[in-house]
Design brief:
With 471 residues, the protein is mainly α. It has a single domain, classed as Growth Hormone, Chain: A, CATH 1.20.1250. 76% of the residues lie in helices and 1% in strands. The chain is built from 21 helices and two strands. Strands 1-2 form a two-stranded antiparallel ribbon. Helix 14 runs antiparallel to helix 15. The longest helix has 31 residues. The protein is globular. It starts with a helix and ends in a 14-residue tail after the last helix. This is Major facilitator superfamily (MFS) profile domain-containing protein. Keywords: Membrane, Transmembrane, Transmembrane helix, Transport. GO terms for molecular function: transmembrane transporter activity.
Length: 471
Amino acid sequence: MACVSIKGVLAVIGGFLINLILGVLFSFGNIMPYIASYMREVAGIPVSYSDFASVNMVFVFTNGFVLAFAPLILIPFVGNKIVLYFSCLCFSVGPVLARFAMDKSLGLVILTYGFIQAIGNMALIPTYTIPMRWFPNHRGSIMGLVTAGYGLSTLALSPIQILIVNPDNVSPIKDDSSEDMFFRDPEVLARVPTLLITLSIVYAVVLFIACLFMFEPASESDEAIESSANKDQVDQRQSRETIGVKWNRIKETLIYFKSNILPCKAYYFILFTRFAVVICTISLTTYYKAFALTFIQSDFFITSYVGALSGVSSSMSSIIYGFVLDWVPYKFVVSFMMVILGIAIGTLYITTLLNEIWFVLWMHAIFLNMQGIFAVIPAKSNEIFGETYGGVVVGTTALSDIIVTGMIELFGSLLLTGLQINYLHYFLFVCIGPTIGLFCTLFLPATEEDQKRLNRMLCREEPTQSTMKLT
């Protein structure tokens, strides 16, 4: 029992570390100005921030496909461990390949830093399932701890990025043809290749350790095999499984997805809720720094008090909302989240009329309510569809990222290109996300677990049967 407990704790730590590294998505807005500036000033490639944002768009576009492909096909066939190691390898080599690609073309940067690195995000799926299998009675709290790493990524990585590439806090210079700010200092630009190589090394070391920690709880059949004294019988069983059983697992997963998940209304409400929040995450992580540089001169200030410290807010969001979900009905939790998020984003432009301190406070309010959904949705999916297929729900709902990618690319090009960069209209557009999320949350059917949470809140006796059924 003690051994199981230790492995369960290590699995939570491993999931946390994987999320910590893969959460680099949130620091994309921090590193984008440096790579874009290098390409303009050193490589002679005239890219704008809206052009370079396509790297992030491809990353998210690919992410949507691989997160669906992993639980539907790859994990049932090869298992969680192989998926973890392969994914982490792809994620680690992305930056070092981009170091050479940025001297050639934007297209190669998109291929390496966008597409190849995004394949590595398949490693997220095992972190959404394995830790909760060890602690099924605390799904929300466990997912809050695991996904807190995703938010803390900015706190861990943003200062490292700036320490390597811009330790003297050199300010960017306004471009003559637009209101965008780019770095032109030769020393800063010379450090950009070193930055990418260093990131690859850090990713590889941490992810390898995390993969070693990702122990899976044994099923009853596995325990029976391990207790067998006939090693040849075990080897033969594993060989047969490689040939036939794993193909059957794929078929079973696809059949369950078609027959049980797709007809369920709850699946679509979860899907569109995720879709709604991803609108906010992609938009703000891509453009927050470019927006801030239009009225805040210090890149060090933005990175330290927004880029890094917002990671604290994001991790707190995951832990708090995950813990609360174990005690409060889903509708209450997510409805509150969407209302606060919509108000904060819709009024963000006001900070240009105030000062940099107010911008920091606004961004913290956004991150404090934005990250929590990525702890809540895996826990809720596991609660509704079970531990075997919860990962399938989380992975396939990520397909909505593809639509979000197109929306952000389109509206970013329309609203944030030219001499007058109208961030006010852009942020009002982003408010579509929390509005959709609130609507989907209010109409999601309650589960038996939600009813139990409500009864505990109201100090009522719990009913013996659920009065609500998902269809």
